[in-house]
Amino acid sequence: MTSEPADSLRAEMEFLLQCLRDTSSGEPNDDALIALAPDVPWDAFVEETTRHGVAPLVYKRLEPIQEAVGMPDTALEQLRDIYIHNALRNAAHLEEVKRILIAFRDADVPVIVLKGVDLAVSVYAEPALRPMQDLDLLIHDRDALKTTDVMRHLRYHQEFYPELGIDYDTFHHLAPFHKKGALPVEVHRNLSDPNDPFKIDIEGIWSRARPIEVDDVEAKGMCPEDILAYLCAHAAYNHEFDVSLLSLHDISRSIHSFATGPLAWGLLSVTANGDQRSRFVFSVLELVRQLLRAPIPRSALARLKHSVADQEIVATLAASISSPDVDVPVGYRELARAGSWKEFSVFVRGTFPSRLRLAKTYGVRPGSPLVYLLYIIRPLDVLRRRGTILFGLLVGSARGAPVAAAARRQRSITLWAKSALVSEASSQDNNNPPRES
What's the CA gap between 139 and 429, in Å, rounded? Predict the structure, then answer.
């Protein structure tokens, strides 16, 4: 499936994608950036860079060539401020991560470091380049009680969020651990739930784990093939591609980082085909190949079981992630998808979300009594900020067009994701290699 032509992208997005191609490959292409720079609206570029969580990366890429690309001082200073803030923040968080890993080691609890922290210390040139939102760890199920004791000894407390209706005795991770000033910690006993369409081989994850270091503390991380499979499925299945370019850059950077080492594409295909994540993995890898030019062998993609639909959805995915942000509540998007007041309940859910989502939206601790006050303030706030957009969406005006377009794309993605959940036997076709883009 061909990607959208470059001239259909906004100038700031094409420039941003080229920056990320350079940072993921480690092979700067100054000429490409210089050629694109004259058309870049710098304020919009900084906004997109920040929205996608890649400001530290882009700052390090552009700082040496600021004059050559004609980047204004004010724009570079904004990115520099984010880079410095993230560097200080990550340094403090990594010290806490070290304390946690040492405590686990002393308690004789084996642990695998997942996602952001592993990527920050193993894949990126420096931890400051990769923002970290939480700490994800994998333990053996038998060590769940020991883990809780360790975390409590470190003065963490658990949030159970009863409104979500989660049974943490069987859920794939324990109730999240929190401590003031520290990253939230999710300790996983598994990487999939009983209701998920795939069953990840946890024992295989443990047997293939590789040694890593968080500063001078020894730990374990997933092997390169398991990292790629996990990141791809997480983006496609868990988030239905409601992700930032940082998520795609993680995958591209991992491929470049491990390309000179033990990255075995055959193992990736065997693993993903075996546990039925292959359609998700194929589509994400093809998207990363097209947008960020990651060096993914076509033979590797061909070995992943997939359907024609998995190729066709890539153009929609590329358009979705590279389009301007449509800053409206989830309920409005759902209303646009349904296109009918029969689905008014989804709008109500967007205006009155769960306590956890409401707390996150307004930056309040989930257990705070202020959350209940927010339920009174919320509809007035939504009406003040979004009333004209809602009206435009309902009557089909130009103001509602971006929302409707985003909703159509998301609808296509949702339908594709549902099709990818059916049995491997009826939906996956290994005889459709990816086409040229």
Answer: 35
CB 123 within 8 A of CB 115: no
**What is the DSSP annotation of 295-313?**
---HHHHHHS-B-HHHHHH
Q: How far is CA 47 from the centre of its chain?
A: 18
Cα torsion 418, 420, 425, 429: sign: positive
E strand or H helix that includes residue 186: strand 185-188
Burial 139-160 (b: 16+ CB within 10 A, else e): bbeebbeebbebbeebebebee
Write down how long the chain is.
Answer: 437
User: For residue 274, how far is the Cα from the chain centroid?
Assistant: 24
β-sheet bridge partners, residue 219: 212
How many Cα neighbours within 13 Å face the side chain of 327? 6
Q: What is the pLDDT of residues 183-211, one digit of tens each?
A: 999 999 999 887 888 889 999 999 999 99
Q: 217 — phi, psi (to 5°)?
A: -100, 120
Closest among 321, 434, 332 to 382, alpha carbons compared: 332
Query: Phi then psi for 210, rounded to 5 degrees?
Result: -110, 155
Give CA–CA dist 216/352, Å, rounded.
Answer: 46
Low-confidence ranges of the chain (pLDDT < 70): 1-8, 163, 260-262, 326-347, 349-350, 385-403, 422-437
Nearest-CA neighbor of 358 among 120, 87, 163, 81? 163
DSSP state of 237: I
Place of tokens 């270091």: 213
Q: What is the pTM of this model?
A: 0.82
The CA–CA distances, whole Å, from 328 to 47, 353, 356, 406, 437 equal: 17, 14, 18, 11, 33
Closest CA to 99 of 151, 147, 141: 151
* Cβ neighbour number for residue 295 with a 10 Å cutoff: 11
At 115 the three-state DSSP class reads: helix
3 state SS of 306: strand
User: What number of helices (H) and strands (E) belong to the chain?
Assistant: 21, 7
Q: Is 184 left (phi over 0), alpha (psi -120 to 50) or beta?
A: beta
Distance of CA 113 to the CA centre of its chain: 17
Question: What is the secondary structure of 71-95 as a DSSP string?
Answer: --HHHHHHHHHHHHHHHHHHHHHHH
User: pLDDT of 134-150, one tens digit each?
Assistant: 999 999 999 999 999 99
> Between the CA of residue 280 and those of 249, 285, 407, what are the distances in Å?
17, 9, 21
In degrees to the nearest 10, what's the CA dihedral of 386, 388, 391, 397? -120
